[in-house]
């Protein structure tokens, strides 16, 4: 079975000319000339990026997902490949309803009609890992039921094994292979898929995001019904709205598209800088618009998290960039520990300036946040910076938000929308509000520590003398042991000398 699958992969690769992408790396061209002899009949009118996308689509949903993940690794891929792979859509035919019912009955231990008041047999959405059916709970609540595709674990394990084998070959046969880190990329993909296969993890992500946006005037997140959820089944509130890609319909409904585009930017920066927890799969298929103009978020399989260090890094860099303070940008990388401490700030500053100054010839509204962040990553890699996975996810999401916002409103000035938010956040982190927040957060710990303070002070004052006494005692013990060993060695030496003397007398006498 694996050999047949491998044969298909090789066949598809040859049909779309993927071998030429490897052969083109040979500067001499000799290998390409020899290889092309048996394939002289092949002609390719389409660019390599289009051929790669079509090949992945031909190989099935797991390879489509792999291409989607690769599109986020713009630190590794050339821009033409990354841009084309970003067009991949995870749309596959639904699996038979009988299989979905079998999964549900296996999980609940009873027929679906005894679990739900109604269960729609026709799925409303289908992807490579799961599909969604609408239903009603016993109390009449309308829900969406996400069901894991049967046997998907086996398919994934099978294709991952082939990808790992291909990655090893790529590293050995292609001069550029080692730089692209194919085995590391496949391992990252395997982790990404493992997360998507656990619907309880997705349910937890959804629940967290909903809690972060409780009573929000900008974003609606469905409620999770935990009593009906498991690793292979997720049940959440049914959402009603218009897909954000249907711009003509939104305009006909009287939706203010300019306001909607600005709200999308505010939602993103709120998730990133307030919560450090953001939806990392914000393509148009996962976003609806409610009748009241609020966004509706769906599909929570991929979420990004940021630490306070990450958030400070991003805010500092964005603000410094648009003030053209490249020294501050360079210093922020070193302070965050993402560039070696030995890096010369002036050299790093000069490299950043060379890359970023041309950007500012454009009006601010035409400057891409996502591409600016990408350029920053590419420059930093020359100074031994390993791009952080959470920042790669963030950059991908930022590109999605930018593209979506400018599709809704071509005049969207992302910087003008985001700058006040960033400045307010930085003020909260570094101003008097930050001091008050720190006091509030530490107060419970202080309440427990203050009564112990006299004892702790006494302990701290007396401990050094105790430690010194213990050290002196240990040194004295070691000295005594050394003297004993010295006497023992001397005794052994004397005995050996006596034995040698006796033996010499015996030999000579």
UniProtKB/TrEMBL annotation:
Localization annotation: Cell membrane
Signal sequence, renumbered to the chain: none
Pfam families linked: ABC1
Single Gene Ontology MF annotation: ATP binding
Active site (catalytic residues): 281 (proton acceptor)
InterPro entries: ABC1_dom, Kinase-like_dom_sf, UbiB, UbiB_bact, UbiB_kinase
Stored SUPFAM superfamilies: Protein kinase-like (PK-like) (SSF56112)
CDD domains reported in the protein's UniProt record: UbiB
UniProt name for this protein: Probable protein kinase UbiB
Gene, per the UniProt record: ubiB
